[in-house]
Design a protein that fits this description.
The protein is mainly beta. The longest helix is centred in the first third of the chain and has 5 residues. The N and C termini lie far apart (about 35 Å). A hairpin with a 6-residue loop joins strand 4 and strand 5. It contains one helix and eleven strands. The strands form two sheets. Strands 2, 4, 5, 6, 9, 10 and 11 form a seven-stranded mixed β-sheet that branches. It has a four-stranded antiparallel β-sheet with strand order 1-3-8-7, with no helix packed on it.
Length: about 120
């Protein structure tokens, strides 16, 4: 099983990015993917990793308070992919973002927001 997170980059405050978490591997079929929630975490320099958002296997989203109204999670089970749309980014969103599915971690993608 492999999780590939991508879509990070450098943007100015107020900008947007869309992160993608793609699952691959023979054991991670579309059906298996559809049974798992997709979680997003982030880790800023010098800080502990924090949970950011989740989309359940049924498609219900949940967010940490600091990103509510700005971030949106979604998923495409056929593509075995989760998404994190991030709008109105602030420098406080600067971090390495990770996805987690079935206790597997993606390698992380860097998001840098400048003021």
């Amino acid at each position: 099983v492999q999780l590939q997170a991508s879509g990070g980059g450098s943007v100015q405050a107020g900008g947007s990015l869309r992160l993608t978490c793609a699952a691959s591997g023979s054991r991670f079929t579309s059906w298996a993917f559809s049974t798992w929630a997709v979680d997003w975490y982030r880790q800023a320099p010098g800080k502990q990793r924090e949970w950011v958002a989740r989309i359940s296997n049924g498609g219900s989203p949940n967010y940490t308070g600091s990103v509510k109204g700005r971030f949106t999670v979604s998923r495409d089970n056929a593509k075995k992919t989760g998404y994190l749309q991030m709008n109105s980014l602030t420098p406080e969103d600067t971090a390495v973002y990770y996805c987690n599915i079935a206790d597997f971690w993606g390698q992380g993608t860097q998001v840098t927001v400048s003021s």
